[in-house]
Amino acid sequence: MNPIARQNLPAYAASLGDSQARLDALAELSQRLLERCRARGASQAEVSCSEDTGLNVNVRMGEVETVESTRDRGISVTVYFGKRKGSASTADLRAESLDATVEQACAIARHTEDDPAAGLADPERMATEIREFDTWHPWAIDADRAIDLALACEQAGRDSDARIGNSDGASLGTGESVAVYANTHGFVGRERSTQHSLACALIAGRGEAMQRDGWYSYALAAEDLESAAAIGRKAAERAVARLAPRRLATGEYPVLFAAEMARSLIGHLLNAVSGGALYRRASFLVDAAGTQVFPEWFAIEERPFLRRGFRSASFDAEGVATRESALVAGGVLQRYVLGSYSARKLGLQTTGNAGGVHNLQVAANAGDFEAMLRGMGRGLLVTELMGQGVNAVTGDYSRGAAGFWVEDGRIQYPVDGITIAGNLKNMFRAIEAVGSDVDARSHVRTGSILVGRMTVAGED
C-alpha cells in the first residue's frame, strides 16, 4: 500500500466509541423488536444484536500487503407461534427494514411444522446476576503503528537465523465486540469483549528442502501479548527446527501431542458430547454420560467466571445462567453439552451451553514440557496435524502429522510425511499424562497430552 493510502486510512482509535452507549442502544433496539413481535401475535420471541469493529494488517517481506478496517452489525429475530419457529436477520437499522425482518420471521413461523422441542429456554433458568470479567480492553492503535509492529515482528524472525530464506508474512489484528441478547421472559443480557493478536509465519531452507512454521500471540488485552520480537524469533526457531525431516518406520509408538495440538483432542470430545450430535445419534459417545471414558485420574472443569477468560460469561446464548461444573471427573463423563433445544430432544435439562462451552480446564497430572518428554522416553512428538480424518460416529481417527522423534526423553530430529491413527475411545482411555505446560491462547486450557500407544504410518 502506498504512503498516501496509509495516511488516508482513518485511525482505528477514532472508531472505538463508547461501549456502554452502544450497549444501551442495542438493548433499546432489542426491546422495540420484541414489542413488534408481540404485536404480530408471537407467543415468544428473542432478539440478538451485535456490533463488531476491527483493524487487520498483513505484511510480507518487509512490504505492506493489506490494511483493513471493519465495522459489522448483526440483528437476528426469532419468533415462536406455539411450537412453530421462524428466524430472520438484517444489518439495516432503518425502521422499514426492521419491520420487514420481524414480518419475515413471523411468516416463516406460520408456515413451519410444530416442533415439540421449540421455544425459549425455561424462564426460571434465566441468569439473574450479570458479572464483569475484565474482558474489555480496546487498543487505541492506528494503522501506521499496527503496520510497524507487524513489520518488526517479521524482521525479528528473518534476522534471527541465516537459514530463514522467505516469509509467509506477519499480521496484527485487533477488534472489539458488543452484544445484547433479549427475550420475552424479560431477560436482557449485555456482553462486551476485545481481542488482539500478532502472528508470524516464516520459511526456512531453500528449494525442495524448505520448511514452514510460525508462532502467534492472542489476548484480550494488548499488554498481555508477547512482544513482536519474541514472536518473530519463536517463529524462526520453529521453522529452522523442522529442516531436514526424516520418515519413520510404520509401527506403534507413544504419541505426545504438544499443547496447541492437544486442544484438538478435547475438541473431538466436545463434538461427541454436544446435544446436536447426540440426538441425531451421530456420535461415538451416545449414551456415554456416567460411564468411564478416560483414566481414573483425568478431569475437565468448565469455568465460566474466569477473569479475562476467552469464553467467560454469566449467561449462554439463550440467557440461561452459566455455572462452574465438571465435564469429566475421575475419568467419568459427568454430563453432555446442551442447550435447551437439544436437551428437550434428549429428555434432559439444558446445561447452560447454548452457543458452546465457557472456558475448559484440563487437569494436569505431570510436569512441564521437558518432563513430559522425559516421561515418554521414546516416541513421537506431534506439533502439526493435517486433514480432517475423524469419523464422528465411530470415533475412528486418522490424520496427517509432523513433529519430532524423541529418544531417551530428548528430541532427536524432525519427522514429516506420516499419519497417526487410532480410535478416539481407545485414545482417550490410553492417555497417560497431561502436562502443566498449558497453552493459554484458547478457552480450552490444556497442557501437552501423552497417548500411550498409536499406530504411526510412515515408511513401509
TrEMBL record:
All residue ranges annotated as the Metalloprotease TldD/E central domain in the record: 137-243
Protein name: Microcin-processing peptidase 1
Organism (species): Vulcaniibacterium tengchongense
Domain Metalloprotease TldD/E N-terminal as annotated: residue spans: 45-109
Family label: Belongs to the peptidase U62 family.
GO molecular function, one term: metallopeptidase activity
Gene Ontology cellular component list: cytosol
Top-level taxon in the UniProt lineage: Bacteria
Alphabetized InterPro entries for the sequence: Metalloprtase-TldD/E_C, Metalloprtase-TldD/E_cen_dom, Metalloprtase-TldD/E_N, PmbA, TldD/PmbA_N, TldD/PmbA_sf
GO biological process, one term: proteolysis
Residue ranges constituting the Metalloprotease TldD/E C-terminal domain according to the UniProt record: 250-458
Annotated signal peptide: none
